[in-house]
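Late entry, evening session. Most of the bench is empty. Finally got around to the prediction I had been postponing all week. Sequence below, unchanged from the version circulated by S.P.
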Amino acid sequence: MSRAAGRDAQATGLHACACGKSVLYMTVTTWLENVALARSSGTYLRYRDKIAKPDVLILDDMGMRKLSATEAQDLCEILEERTIGKSTVFTTQLPLDHGSEVIGDPVIADAIRDRLEHAALVIQITGESYRGVKARKLASKKKDA
């Protein structure tokens, strides 16, 4: 998976907005922080409902760290809430067969995989990192100046 996948997911979200769909974009890290905050403040169910509502939910950078059992269960619940009539987009740099490295609990990993497998459209993007291209252009400008 390309490192540009997050940018492509953002473009997908912008297109969905242009088509009149509601979209929520955030990194998985931000989502996990928000879930922890909602749990500690007693507003988890309200937050889960908020995440379940948009037509398109984009979670960027899945797999940056291993999910705890509670976090994996939260992800499973969100996917369950969004199963019918909602789209969920994940971006990751991990190959799909490495999901067990992110979701340690095999039962929850199987439940998540089951929710994703039957309705998923997998788009594998290859190519150079956007940041690498940008850095090269910047270096070239500095050299020419």
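Two things to note before I forget:
Strands lie at 23-27, 56-62, 87-92.
The domain at 5-144 is CATH 3.40.50.300 (Rossmann fold).
Will write this up properly tomorrow.
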